[in-house]
Design brief:
With 396 residues, the chain is of the alpha+beta class. Helix content is 52%, strand content 12%.
């Protein structure tokens, strides 16, 4: 498969900006945009070739759309119209003005604002493109294979950012967004199909790999999900780890469901190392450490989560539980009080925790009644109209 450059000059296509809006609408609706495009006198183009549309003429000069070469309908193929063109591929359309202006069928999967292309001038300044002769890339010419992976990387980064700003559209983003919505509604088979389509557009689409992992985890196929998340982590390393934190987090969830707590802890730690403000990962790490009976470390992780979102009553409740496991009674009391302040409905749950502590703690059980009462007194809460915690121990 070659990567082909096709060109667009606004004077030859004055309606290009209106056309770009139409393409964006198709892509946002989850439909690739089919069109016919001039390729000059190029005769080597094949069905399945990768294409980039390049703005020429007035600056900025650069690539503003991508897609693939499509097979023309059999009745519209140029080679079927005239035996002289039997050597051409099925991509060449009979609308061609032979032999000076052949036309090929395209299917576009991404397009950007005409004034915000991936600038060739920018690419020329990158060390990875040293030696690439952009000047020779005319209408219908093939991009040097030594640089095509670099071009795809830069296009992915640039088009993602421009589309995020609402100045372009990528079919792959639509597929991933629709897939995520289907996963939320547990429509796993349809979601799997969309993510697979996304990977056909870009085999290195990390969002689609993670999406497939989410589908498989939703179906209970945890081993398969872990493989998808691992692939996303591996591919992410090529792009500076931009999406690694989510892949690590999701793989951690899968390991947690398999009761592989040590592996889950490793992945959650990797996620928060990549993003110290990753609240969900801090919470998951804390919960897993608690389940692994690593209570001191769990307390530290709950504290980091509280620092990021201190208004969550469950965080104070869970940190209090971990402190109770270590008999840090005063600290647990403070956290339970804060949890109640945020959510008075937790009263019964906290009373149950304290009762359980009273029934199972050996140090407590070894006390005489006066000693038990002294410990219980530490859990007497100041009653308010909205919350009241009973003593753990009522006798003395």
């Amino acid at each position: 498969m070659e990567t082909i450059t096709l060109q667009c000059h606004e004077k030859d296509m004055p309606q290009v900006r209106t056309w770009i809006k139409q393409v964006c609408e198709d892509l946002h609706q989850g439909q690739a945009h089919d069109c016919i495009w001039s390729c000059g006198q190029a005769e080597q183009i094949q069905v399945g070739d990768r294409i980039f549309l390049q703005r020429i003429g007035k600056p900025p000069i650069g690539y503003f759309a991508s897609g693939y070469v499509l097979e023309a309908p059999p009745t519209d193929q140029l080679r079927q119209r005239d035996p002289a063109y039997r050597g051409l591929s099925a991509a060449y359309h009979q609308q061609s003005e032979v032999p000076t202006d052949y036309r090929v069928c395209l299917q576009l999967d991404a397009i950007l604002n005409f004034d915000q292309p991936l600038k060739i001038k920018t690419l020329q300044q990158l060390s990875r493109f040293q030696g690439c002769n952009f000047a020779r890339l005319g209408q219908g010419t093939a991009f040097d294979p030594a640089y095509t992976d670099f071009l795809e990387d830069e296009w992915r980064n640039h088009s993602t950012e421009i589309a995020r700003l609402g100045r372009g559209a990528r079919l792959i983003d639509t597929y991933c967004a629709q897939g995520a919505e289907l996963v939320r509604h547990k429509q796993f088979e349809d979601a799997y199909h969309l993510y697979s389509e996304a990977l056909l557009i870009d085999a290195d689409c990390i969002q689609a790999m993670i999406g497939l992992g989410n589908v498989l985890m939703g179906q209970g196929q945890l081993d398969a999900a872990i493989l998808e998340y691992s692939d996303a982590i591996f591919v992410g390393a090529k792009f500076g780890g931009k999406f690694d934190k989510l892949a690590y987090f999701k793989r951690g969830l899968a390991y947690f469901r398999q009761e592989e707590l040590d592996l889950a802890i490793q992945d959650y730690r990797q996620a928060v190392e990549l993003d110290a403000k990753y609240f969900e990962a801090h919470c998951a790490l804390a919960n897993t450490l608690y389940k692994a009976q690593q209570y001191s470390e769990a307390i530290d992780s709950y504290s980091r989560a509280i620092a990021l979102a201190g208004h969550k009553s469950k965080l104070y409740l869970r940190r209090g539980k971990a402190q109770l496991k270590l008999s840090q009674l005063k600290r647990a009391k403070r956290d339970f009080e804060q949890a109640l302040t945020l959510n008075s409905d937790l009263k019964d749950k906290i009373n149950a925790l304290l009762a359980d502590y009273a029934n199972n703690n050996r140090a407590w059980a070894g006390q005489d009644k006066a000693g038990q009462g002294a410990i219980a007194q530490k859990f007497v809460y100041t009653p308010t109209p909205t919350n009241r915690i009973l003593r753990v121990y009522s006798g003395s």
